[in-house]
TrEMBL record:
Gene3D superfamilies: DHBP synthase, Threonylcarbamoyl-AMP synthase, C-terminal domain. It is found in: Cytoplasm. This is Threonylcarbamoyl-AMP synthase. Residues 335-354 are annotated as: Disordered.
Length: 432
């Protein structure tokens, strides 16, 4: 790795705006990158195609030169820069128009690289089982930082958030660059996170020099963030590794979820990780959440979710009286057969769990199927894509049918609540 730059004060101003870029979009097939060994100490990829190697080296050179690059990860697309370069980190803030007190997550491609940037070059023992079980993957951990990490990355905090991603393109790019990469989501700050390269281009074309297209992100929601330095340990942001999974790991039996089991006003004002202080994930249209209602043992699930859907239709009629004319609905209330073909009145939606396509017949109401509420992993993968799609249809309001907060549903509902400007509660549904 290159020598570290001296940390600058957290309040340092961003660099002056640069000239617009002719953003290059390069496509890589992730399957052309493999890892023959499961060893995480210092792994190196096998790259099957010269094109893949050329694109990675081009991107790595941009990063070594202090530029930023859009790249795919298994969670969402990230906007990467050299995590040891304070000026490069500021280019992330500039391109995204990101608040200066919102810290960045650092990505590594080996445990050797991780140790090199930690205080005393030590990995805290509390994380041993989490790392063994869930790295590489969508899990971010808080570590005591060393002076190698500029203040721009941590916003002056004593800890740094780090993850070891599983996406082969991300891992290979970090290895090619030979530096840890800071990489928040590659979107304009506050907008829905990007899960396709086209989303990155929509937001950042002309603001960054390069985007790597590796296809749709497999999970679709940002990583789980765990602070194991606290007692008890805390999930500061739910994500791809669930509360239920973490709770089963040795040393994490008493883990708590921020804003579900505890609050910390001081930490929210000076966050140690992204996603704690600012409103996020919001499209241009108003977002309205309709809370999930758990069916009783005597009820059929379809009866309850039809209550959610009926309430949305009633709300649409009210909004039409106020002059709004075009609406979107992110649907989760489908039976197992509904993901293949579902109709409601003069609306029809078809699709499959991986790539749902709107087939609405009502030009005033566009429905986008996220997947079944009983499969939160499908809903997570499609959530941001659905928000962006409906926003592109110039709707006035987007309704989201909520799901249970079990498993990946906790992360889904965390993101929807941050995107929503108002919520229709279960009490309203019970009186239908």
């Amino acid at each position: 790795m290159s020598p570290a730059t001296s940390p600058l004060p957290a309040a340092a101003a961003a660099p002056a705006p640069t000239a617009a870029f002719a953003t290059i979009l390069e496509t890589i097939d992730p399957s052309t990158i493999t890892y023959p060994s499961a060893d995480l100490e210092d792994p190196h990829p096998t790259i099957a195609l010269p094109h893949t190697r050329r694109v990675l080296e081009h991107a790595a050179q941009l990063l070594r030169d202090g530029q930023v690059v859009g790249m795919p990860t298994e969670t969402v697309y990230g906007l990467a820069s050299n995590a040891l370069d304070s000026a490069a980190a500021q280019r992330i803030f500039q391109a995204k128009n990101r608040p200066q007190d919102n810290p960045l997550i650092v990505h590594v491609s080996s445990l050797k690289m991780l140790r090199s940037m930690l205080k005393d070059n030590q990995i805290p023992p509390v994380y041993a089982e989490l790392i063994r079980t869930y790295w590489p993957g969508p899990l971010t951990l808080l570590f005591p930082r060393s002076t190698l990490i500029p203040n721009e990355i941590t916003c002056g905090q004593a800890t740094v958030a780090v993850r070891f991603p599983s996406h082969p393109i991300t891992r290979a790019l970090i290895t090619a660059c030979d530096r840890p990469l800071a990489a928040p989501s590659a979107n304009s700050s506050g907008k829905p996170s990007p899960t396709l390269a086209s989303h990155v281009m929509d937001d950042l074309k002309g603001k960054i020099p390069m985007v790597i297209d590796g296809g749709q992100c497999s999970f679709g929601i940002e990583s789980t963030v765990v602070d194991g330095l606290r007692s008890p340990p805390a999930i500061l942001r739910p994500g791809g590794v669930t509360f239920e999974q973490i709770q089963k790991v040795k040393g994490m039996e008493h883990v708590q979820v921020y804003k579900k089991h505890f609050t910390d006003a001081a930490m929210e004002q000076a966050p140690t990780t992204p996603g704690m202080k600012y409103r996020h994930y919001s499209p241009e249209a108003e977002v309205v959440l309709v809370e999930f209602v758990r069916p009783s043992t005597a009820e059929q699930g379809s009866e309850t979710v039809s209550g959610q859907y009926s309430l949305i239709l009633q709300e649409i009629e009210k909004l039409k009286q106020e002059g709004k004319r075009r609406f979107g609905i992110l649907r989760t209330s489908f039976s197992s057969s509904a993901t293949d073909s579902h109709s409601s009145g003069n609306r029809e939606i078809t699709g499959n769990g991986d790539s749902a396509v709107d087939r609405s017949l009502d030009i005033d109401v566009i429905e986008f199927p996220l997947g079944q509420s009983s499969k939160p992993e499908d809903v997570a993968r499609e959530l941001f894509r659905g928000l962006r799609y409906l926003d592109s249809q110039n709707v006035d309001c987007i309704f989201v049918e909520g799901i249970s907060e079990e498993d990946e549903g906790l992360a889904v509902m965390n993101r929807v609540r941050k995107a929503a400007s108002r919520t229709i509660t279960s009490e309203a549904i019970e009186f239908l």
